[in-house]
Specification:
heterodimer; A: alpha+beta; Butyryl-Coa Dehydrogenase, subunit A, domain 1; Butyryl-CoA Dehydrogenase, subunit A, domain 2; 3 domains; 4-stranded mixed beta sheet; 4-stranded antiparallel beta sheet; 10 strands; B: Rossmann fold; 11 strands; binds flavin-adenine dinucleotide
Chain lengths: 381, 270
Amino acid sequence: MNFQFTAEQELLRKSMREFAETQIAPLVEEMERTDKMPLDLVKKMANQGYYGVTIPQAYGGSNLGHVARLITLEEVGRISAAVSMSLQCLQFGGGCLNNSGNEAQKQKYIPDFIRGKNNAAAAITEATGGSDPSATATEAIEHDDYYLLNGRKVFITNSDIADMAIVLAKTKDEPKKEFSTFIVDKSMAGFRAGRVENKIGFKGCGTGELIFDNCKVPKENLLGKPGQGLAIALKGISEYGRVGIIGVALGIMQASYEAALKFSRERVIYGKPISNLPAVYYRIAEIYADIEASRLLAYRAVWLLDQGKNADVEIAAAKFFVTEAALRCTRKAMDIHGGYGCVKEYAVERYCRDAQLLIPADGTNDIQRTVVGRTLTASKK
Amino acid sequence: MSGLQIVVCVKFVLDPKDISEESIDPATGTINRANYKLVINPLDKHALFAARQLQKIAGGTVTVVSMGPPSIVEDLTETLALGADKVFLFSDPLFAGADTLATSYTLASGIKKFVSSFDLILCGARSLDGSTAQVGPQLAVHLGIPWVTNLSAFNWQQDRFVNLKMKLEDGYLSFAVKPPVLFTVNRDINQPSPPTLMDIVMARSKNVTIISAQDINLESNRVGLTGSPTRFKEIFYYPTKRKKELLFGSPEEMVKALFQELRTKGMFGQ
Ligand SMILES: Cc1cc2nc3c(=O)[nH]c(=O)nc-3n(C[C@H](O)[C@H](O)[C@H](O)COP(=O)(O)OP(=O)(O)OC[C@H]3O[C@@H](n4cnc5c(N)ncnc54)[C@H](O)[C@@H]3O)c2cc1C
């Protein structure tokens, strides 16, 4: 057993922290106000290579792996959950292409994606219920050399900055429903972004509709084989989406911890810092324990991915544990701040709003429990 | 010409973010270094970034040299990711306790031995901890080359450095100079960015070479504590106190009162 990050991973964390503190922190206030992602930042992150962290060098990635990806998201999330969320969803789009694309698709889309010229969204959820992708109503009707897509996706991260999307659509109704995934890009007429939601948190990270209105998608843009759509989407959701949310959550928790610690040492009442009050340091101890437990669950799950193992159950368990821990921790950090926790001058209220969004994203925590519980009870052990 | 041979001197210092009054042992006035993370001296990072930018224009090689304990080998990987092609760590128990004179002598001897023909030596203008600003100029003297300190800018053109902007208290001096030369740089010179992920990958194929006193031809009485004429008399924590004063009245009156107060404190000269 070895609980140490490698020297390279430590260096990665250090450089991510430096980037987040110098390049992202100064933008947070404006993002909170305007709810817009600064496009400059998207470009800068591309130049730093942050989109290609799990992608082979042949396509311009660094192939540092899933542990490294979690480090990038945690460090960005410590400064801005919104930027971390945006980043993780871009990595998700790119990851699907890399997991399931053929050589021609990879050559065509991935290098530009990594350079920040091809922002990729993952478009699965519809109004029929994110928890039930088999209710997907977006249809792709096969024609000679293209599919005709019609439908509307909702709650799609980066809908406002996406140049392309990995789209789940129904390709057959009878005798049995069949789903396929497609690469749809802005050059295809009939593909556009719709309204953007006004969320309580992740301010600056757009979440909105993607609309397919008689959108002609060439057959060569079918991702994987016909009928593999759900499998491709679920693999992406697990290995990229859920892991991504976990990364954002770890960042928020660390930020809450630091804020709580700092405030408790600086706030003096009864002539002493409040960090001397058991009610305060108990909360700090609990936050600490939650972070440690979360990191162990999370990094072990992605370590399994780097070993080439399936980690769906570990990831689902980590997703619900870590996101709920994040919510607990942000609440405790707010409590420690007293009234100051409820004013926008202190970042803890932002952490708390952001943490709630972790719960439904990439599968609600009920769905995570379903994944874990069903798997455990189905096994014969 | 096959580009410029650029040497960057890098020192590792305690991360100022971790240091507070409690870090200092009141009995000895010292900080137990083992308890703290080290970071590249901030201005040395600017120097390294300048070297990398220069290399992009002029080609050549960037060599980092550092003197310190063997434990900083791993920290030095960061300089590889930040663009160093080669890194030499001068490390030997004999070098311990060096002041600026012994440090610059050691660095000079190492550079002479391991970087045969250099064009430019780059240093940060000062280190965050010692803040003497002496090592750069002393190193130039040991190497017998000219030096320009506290640069805010410089360019390379054909065979010389041009548009050197040496920052003074009340302006700049401008120079052009031919290599070999030593520059020390301040923070205006550039805005270093952290290594990219590919930089981190590229660092894998490069490594840090540890050099001991024996590997360098040097006079052993000129290194480490023995070679250091500087003696510390006392180290203590200098407390700074914040004072709070409330001003009342209309905005105009408050501004007036504020300026009056600042003037009596000597903020605007006489
Ligand atoms: C910030 C954010 C970003 C998102 N980004 C994306 C994106 O980039 N791409 C994308 O495709 N989607 C995205 N989503 C959508 C997300 O995946 C869905 O919100 C999620 O799957 C839940 O779907 P729903 O909102 O329709 O809720 P529903 O599915 O309607 O669920 C409603 C409630 O019923 C419960 N429930 C449903 N089924 C079960 C069950 N079987 N057992 C127990 N309880 C159940 C749920 O837990 C929940 O409490 C994002 C969501 C958010 C909040």
